[in-house]
Amino acid sequence: MQAALEITARYCSRELEQYGQCVAAKPESWQRDCHHLKMSIAQCTSAHPIIRQIRQACSEPFKAFEECLRQNEAAMGNCAEHVRQFLQCAEQVQPTHRPSTLEAHPLPAS
């Protein structure tokens, strides 16, 4: 959970900030009133290219982390090494560079 939150905070910070502000402002009804913002976080994390790459490139360390959590429900601290390995993998994922329209079709020299 911590690893996913760190990745989300890094790449979907605007959505996370808006959701946090809504929850803080509506302590009695945040689950209902802030649901659309929660969905915007989910949409960001599923659509963000770098998060997609991380999911693909780091699926094995993440699966190991999830399995550790299942086996250590009462002592999640036992999974710190799994979190570290996943985050280390995620840090090494580089965004794939897609050329912009200008790079793909340079203007002719005058």
Task: Write a brief caption for the model.
This protein is 72% helix and 0% strand.
What keywords describe this structure?
globular, 8 helices, 110 residues, mainly alpha, disulfide bond, CX9C, 72% helix, 0% strand
Distance between the termini: 55 Å
Strand content: under 5%
DSSP summary: helix tally? 8
Helix content: over 70%
> Radius of gyration over alpha carbons?
19 Å
What structural category arises from helix and sheet content?
A: mainly alpha
Largest sheet: none
Instruction: List SSEs in N-to-C order.
Output: HHHHHHHH
What's the total number of strands? 0
User: Which consecutive residue ranges, at least 5 long each, have pLDDT under 50?
Assistant: 99-105
What is the overall shape?
A: globular
Mean pLDDT: 82
Question: Would you mind describing this structure in some detail?
Answer:
This protein is an all-alpha fold and 110 residues long. Helix content is 72%, strand content 0%. It contains 8 helices and no strands. It has helices at residues 2-11, 13-25, 30-33, 35-47, 49-57, 59-71, 80-92, 101-104. Helix 2 packs antiparallel against helix 4 (35-47) and helix 6 (59-71) runs antiparallel to helix 7. The longest helix has 13 residues, at 13-25. It starts with a helix and ends in a 6-residue tail after the last helix. Mean pLDDT is 82; it is low at 99-105. Keywords: Disulfide bond. Pfam families: CHCH, CX9C. InterPro entries: CHCH, CHCH_domain-containing_protein, CX9C.
